[in-house]
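A reminder from the course coordinator: this example appears on the midterm review sheet, so study it carefully.

Given structure:
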């Protein structure tokens, strides 16, 4: 099954699987009817093949790629396995975040990990920051109307839908009309040979202005193959600290406040020297700041612009905020998961991993590497465009395992497996135990040259090539 899924991904870029080996068995890997092991293994294998193509472009040497399906599935919740200085890294969510019963037997989900989204939900509900008060308020609300009210207040969440309800929604139709991933030439520039180096992405500069999980995973994956990644954040923006440890491997991290003219000019200076610009803001958000794909391609001809959104660039929800769990909620995934694997309490259930987020990040990295290869051969500026909803649809489209098999799957990997898949990195916060890169490559084994660091740890400058 991973081979079939992989071929579908590679066909988008006109690539072939070559010598790829999948080990570690098959789905179900964890208790879910969805083929998350296949999804993780196929998207990771695609990154390995894209990196191998760049190595071939550099050296004329081919290499084998291998992926363990179970290890790939573990990578879809890699933050779950972090320890810093032998202490678990907290993955606690905000206390009011979650799924609640609404009127008429419906369910509502509110995403409140960020303070601004929490404030929006509480404002709409008219209650204090208390889970019981939130539950009472939602119980008296129409789920569809509450969904629209929270979005209008610039919050995040959604009404729980079935797959059939979602398929009848105009946004589902808009997403169905899109490919899984788009790699589009948006400007002309001369071919740029890959910089010298002994790794597939040696000398490639990646500017990472994404947040949360999918986008940062893309940049982390590019760092695995030798890219110089500079993450840009700002001191006034909220962050999810534990996830920064998870997605920070291999990166430099600096702060710029784009509300100031000085820091905006500094960002443009970094862009002029970058090869890849990766962003995850809602469609139109950065364009309003003069940072659209076309604007940056004019500033830096040959730039690879990687753009992530929640619900795609077309349809009535194109500008809507969203996260992995929101996409699961509105598209029928949580409904189906609960039908097959009921929770301890009634109601919708999420995947046991963040499959949409991580697979999206891997596909973003795949697209960026394909675009870099095209730039080296034919030149041009390129746009790589993807959404969480497109990836969610793709995962569902991989089909399901039998319900009995899903229910019998263990909820956790063995201690021996996790020990084999883990490594320890020395960081400013102390020894960080975390999962190692999954993809195995014969000539250029993926690894991170830099450890995770606190946000803003470095100056906003590129290292020398």
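Designed residues:
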């Amino acid at each position: 099954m991973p081979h079939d899924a992989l071929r579908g991904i590679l066909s988008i870029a006109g690539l072939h699987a070559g010598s790829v080996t999948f080990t570690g068995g098959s789905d179900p890997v964890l208790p879910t009817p969805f083929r998350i092991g296949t999804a993780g293994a196929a998207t990771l294998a695609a990154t390995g093949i894209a990196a191998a193509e760049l190595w071939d472009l550099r050296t004329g040497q081919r290499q084998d790629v291998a992926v363990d399906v179970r290890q790939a599935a573990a990578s879809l919740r890699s933050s779950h396995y972090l320890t810093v200085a032998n202490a678990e890294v907290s993955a606690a969510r905000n206390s009011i975040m979650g799924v609640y019963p609404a009127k008429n037997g419906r369910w509502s989900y509110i995403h409140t990990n960020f303070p601004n989204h929490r404030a929006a939900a509480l404002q709409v509900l008219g209650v204090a920051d208390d889970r019981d008060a939130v539950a009472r308020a939602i119980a008296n609300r129409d789920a569809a109307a509450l969904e629209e009210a929270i979005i209008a207040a610039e919050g995040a969440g959604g009404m729980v839908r079935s797959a059939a309800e979602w398929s009848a929604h105009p946004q589902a139709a808009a997403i169905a009309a899109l490919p899984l991933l788009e790699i589009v030439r948006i400007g002309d520039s001369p071919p740029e040979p890959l910089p010298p180096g002994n790794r597939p992405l040696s000398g490639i500069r990646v500017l990472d202005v994404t947040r949360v999980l999918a986008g940062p995973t893309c940049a982390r994956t590019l760092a695995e193959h030798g890219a110089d990644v500079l993450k840009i954040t700002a001191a006034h923006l909220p962050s999810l600290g534990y996830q920064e440890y998870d997605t920070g491997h291999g990166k430099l991290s600096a702060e710029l406040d784009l509300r100031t003219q000085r820091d905006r000019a500094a960002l443009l200076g970094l862009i002029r020297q970058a090869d890849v610009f990766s962003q995850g803001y809602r469609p139109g958000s950065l364009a309003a700041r003069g940072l659209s794909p076309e604007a940056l391609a004019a500033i830096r001809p040959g730039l690879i612009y990687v753009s992530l959104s929640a619900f795609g660039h077309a349809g009535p929800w194109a500008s809507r905020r969203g996260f992995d769990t929101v996409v699961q909620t509105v598209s029928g995934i949580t409904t189906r998961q609960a039908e097959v694997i009921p929770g301890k309490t009634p109601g919708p259930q999420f995947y046991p991993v963040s499959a949409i987020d991580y697979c999206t990040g891997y596909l973003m990295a795949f697209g960026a590497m394909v675009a870099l290869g095209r730039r080296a051969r034919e030149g041009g500026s390129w746009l790589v465009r993807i959404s969480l909803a497109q990836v969610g649809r793709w995962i569902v489209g991989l089909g399901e395992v039998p319900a009995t098999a899903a229910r019998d799957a263990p909820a956790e990997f063995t201690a021996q497996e996790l020990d084999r898949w883990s490594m320890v990195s020395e960081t400013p916060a102390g020894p960080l135990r975390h999962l190692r890169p999954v993809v195995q490559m014969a000539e250029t084994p993926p690894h991170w040259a830099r450890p995770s660091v606190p946000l803003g740890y470095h100056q906003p400058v590129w290292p020398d090539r």
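The mean pLDDT is 96. DSSP finds 18 helices and 17 strands in the chain.
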